Amino acid sequence: MGSLPHIVEDCMGVLQLFSDGSVHRCSMKDINFPFPVVHDDSVDFKDVVFDKKLNISLRLYRPKSHASATPTNLLPVVFYFHGGGFCVGSRVWPNCHNCCIRLASGLDALVVAPDYRLAPEHKLPAALDDAVSAVEWLQREALMSAGSSGERDAWLGGGLVDFDRVYVVGDSSGGNMAHHVAVRLGAGSVKAAPVRVRGYVLLAPFFGGEERTKSEEGPPETFLNLEILDRFWRLSMPKGESRDHPMVNPFGPDSPILKEVDLDPILVMVGGNEMLKDRVELYSRRLKELGKKIEYVEFDGQQHGFLTNDPYSEVANEALQVIKRFMNENSN
Q: Among the options 172, 189, 215, 284, which is catalytic?
């Protein structure tokens, strides 16, 4: 008799890969989240299926003060791609939900938080394809004429949102996705018209590379260490690929030549005590050297997920003000 399947990869018990290729995922009720759900009566939210073929949903968040709007008071749209190393996470997880509530109220915006297919069941670039699909969903909504507004989602129709002011925010692996969406759409996001992406906000984007950085080899964080980072890459990358794969390393040997790509403005934010800090700083510096419009902001003493995991903290409020300024500066 053959041996029974055994665990070969374990992501904190939330995700387990077995020797026979099978995958076990904990249900949300079985995960002991270290943060409670925030109840904020100033924001409404609802779920929408954006990819019927793959049955993938997103969650919309809207400030209650903008249940109705005027042509001079339209809501900008903010995409939020959650983190989780491409392997775990969801729009319904408390940290993601709380962060989106805070983004909607703090930025006075309609927030769009898509789920996406996760590894190892769906290797990269599946997550990126789903991120682009979510942008295309918004494009379809924007293209619907006033005469067919009954088919459009009620929160997006009737002149309530400004499709000309769209921003893409991504946290960790979601920040990685935001970078790749920026590259795919290019400056002016012509492919997504009439949706106009004005800028991208990358919150400690999850990039990697075969060559380690000093901060990656430095002391671990409370919820993150090098073993976890490497495990996420092993589970999410196509089989046989290295950490210099284009989805992992923006400056890898087979990655797009970013010098030749026109990009919309990018804001990069990272905690000063993050293991990803050096790689994020290098990413920002390299793009600036290439003449791209990019801003790098470091928050002293902060660890990975400081905004997403505690969106009502003092430092999170500071981060929100930075994002709001970035949005205002790049609104037209």
A: 172
Cβ–Cβ < 8 Å for 97, 35: no
329: annotated active-site residue: no
pLDDT tens per residue across all 332 residues of the chain: 467 899 999 998 899 999 999 999 998 888 888 888 888 889 999 999 999 999 999 999 999 887 665 666 899 999 999 999 999 999 999 999 999 999 999 999 999 999 999 999 999 999 999 999 999 999 999 998 444 555 788 888 877 899 999 999 999 999 999 999 999 999 999 999 999 999 999 999 999 999 999 999 989 999 899 999 999 999 999 999 999 999 999 999 999 999 999 999 999 999 999 999 999 999 999 999 999 999 999 999 999 999 999 999 999 999 999 999 999 999 98
For the entire predicted model, the pTM comes to 0.95
List the catalytic residue out of 66, 97, 245, 304: 304
State the distance between the two ends of the chain, measured CA to CA, in whole angstroms: 67
Which of the following is catalytic: 66, 173, 216, 274? 274
Nearest in space to 206 (alpha carbons), one of 277, 259, 262: 277
24 included as an active-site residue: no
| C-alpha–C-alpha distance, residues 162 and 50, integer Å | 19
- Catalytic residue list contains 284: no
